[in-house]
């Protein structure tokens, strides 16, 4: 094959998802530092309760970290969707090269498509 010189394809598009799109989605996440600091303070106070002097920042950190990690789920899933879409495009291009062998083409397409779906 010829190398496309007019647009990105295959692995280059997938690399762009990780190096451009995913960071963009992360930046779009709204994490207000003042709110975060206030939530950490409230979590520490709630965990400490009436036990003055018993400082338990680990539990507060875990509670806040869990919430922030949950916020990462949507950008991560969006990234996975974009990569799977690109892999499906690459798959279509590859099986097009097998047009002389329709049974083989269909089986390759079926197997790889199933594998992509189960991994997604």
**Number of helical stretches of at least 4 residues:** 4
Distance between the termini: 29 Å
Average residue-wise pLDDT: 82
What is the rounded Rg? Answer: 23 Å
Run of helices and strands: HHHH
Helix/sheet category: mainly alpha
Number of strand segments: 0
Q: Strand percentage, roughly?
A: under 5%
Low-confidence stretches: none
Largest sheet: number of strands, sense, barrel closure: none
How would the global form be characterised? elongated
Helix content: over 70%
What topology does this entry show?
Elements: H1 11-28, H2 33-48, H3 57-96, H4 102-119
Helix pairs in contact: 1-3, 2-3, 3-4
Task: Please give a quick description of this structure.
The chain is mostly helical and 120 residues long.
What does this structure look like?
The protein has 120 residues and is mainly α. Helix content is 77%, strand content 0%. It has 4 helices and no strands. Helix 1 packs antiparallel against helix 3 (57-96) and helix 3 packs antiparallel against helix 4 (102-119). It starts with 10 loop residues before the first helix and ends with a helix. The model has no long low-confidence stretch (mean pLDDT 82).
Which key terms come to mind for this protein?
120 residues, mainly alpha, 4 helices, 0% strand, elongated
């Amino acid at each position: 094959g010829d190398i496309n010189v007019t647009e990105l394809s295959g692995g280059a598009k997938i690399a762009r998802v990780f190096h451009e799109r995913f960071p963009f989605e992360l930046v779009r996440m709204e994490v207000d530092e003042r709110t975060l600091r206030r939530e950490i303070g409230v979590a520490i106070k709630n965990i400490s309760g009436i036990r003055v002097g018993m400082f338990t920042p680990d539990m507060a950190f875990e509670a806040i970290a869990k919430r922030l990690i949950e916020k990462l789920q949507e950008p991560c899933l969006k990234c996975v969707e974009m990569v799977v879409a690109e892999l499906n495009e690459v798959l279509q291009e590859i099986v097009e090269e097998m047009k002389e062998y329709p049974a083989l083409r269909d089986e390759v397409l079926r197997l790889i498509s199933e594998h992509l779906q189960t991994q997604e």
